UniProtKB/TrEMBL annotation:
Residues 54-182 form the AAA+ ATPase domain. This is Holliday junction branch migration complex subunit RuvB. It is found in: Cytoplasm. The gene is ruvB. Mg(2+) binds at T69. It comes from Thermatribacter velox. DNA binds at R313, R318. The RuvA-RuvB-RuvC complex processes Holliday junction (HJ) DNA during genetic recombination and DNA repair, while the RuvA-RuvB complex plays an important role in the rescue of blocked DNA replication forks via replication fork reversal (RFR). RuvA specifically binds to HJ cruciform DNA, conferring on it an open structure. The RuvB hexamer acts as an ATP-dependent pump, pulling dsDNA into and through the RuvAB complex. RuvB forms 2 homohexamers on either side of HJ DNA bound by 1 or 2 RuvA tetramers; 4 subunits per hexamer contact DNA at a time. It is an enzyme of class 3 (hydrolase). Its EC number is 3.6.4.-.
Amino acid sequence: MSEIAGGRFLKEILKRERDDFALRPRSLDEFVGQERLKRNLKVFISASLLRKEPLDHVLFYGPPGLGKTTLAFIIAEELGREIRCFSGPTFSRAGDIASVLTSIGEGDVVFIDEIHRLPRPCEEVLYTAMEDFAIDVLVGKGPGTRSIRLSLPPFTLVGATTRLSLVSAPLRNRFGITEKLDFYSQSELQEIIKNTATQFGMNLREEAVAEIASRSRGTPRIAKRLLRRVRDFADYYRKKEIDGSFVRKVFRALDVDELGLSWADRNLLRVLKEKFGGGPTGLNSLATAMNEDVLTLENFYEPYLIKLGFLARTARGRVLTSQGEQYLQRFDQNG
């Protein structure tokens, strides 16, 4: 790739990131869905501001795409503080965490996505940082080694994970606020799609909104991604007003059915049925048979298939349910 082409490519990526950020709600009142969680957060944030204390550390968990990162940004916005964003796998040494924490301002928000993937040495630095707003640094080598405690400005750590069980108990117990994000209802997704379509300048009929929402797997991120693909087709075919019929044609081209299941989802169910007799079978065996990554199956495909009742996790492995088998039969009959 030439330097000029590479520069254009980088600019396009940065523009897309800015556009994605612009689509995010900036306050709890603008955030659609997760009503119980929002009510609680309003209380916690308001109380911390009244006491002029940092908000207690927050841990969000749930399937990907439900708004954990967006809520971290909203918390910083509501507190009137800066946010520093990181991902668990980007840290490799205890010094990486120490470097971040010693450079933040008082009351700032530190967001760590995929916090369950923090290396243990990095995680251990967080223990005293979260509890005492201090870190212990070893100085010197050999017999002369000594520990010095460095004070940190009070801060709020917001962690996000799709795998709560993989967050160690010592780290998990240091979060004062732990909240689960649930899948979104059809009406909530329709509101999100309408808001995003307005920002895109799209003219969507109600039935078109409903068609997109029903295929969004209860997940705003997927709803917005599907809306972008509808916009692509609408621009290509010069459609000014988008109705339900046009949206259904788009999804037939994308091979996304009324439940939001794609060829890959059906392939998982078929492999489980045809190669493993419906199960039970281990996740590693299933991933190998599908030539897929284990984490992709576990984090992306499984949660929604389990929610639909098509797949079950058991102590012996994954099992295709009777509902899942009936779905495959209906799909084969209807094409």
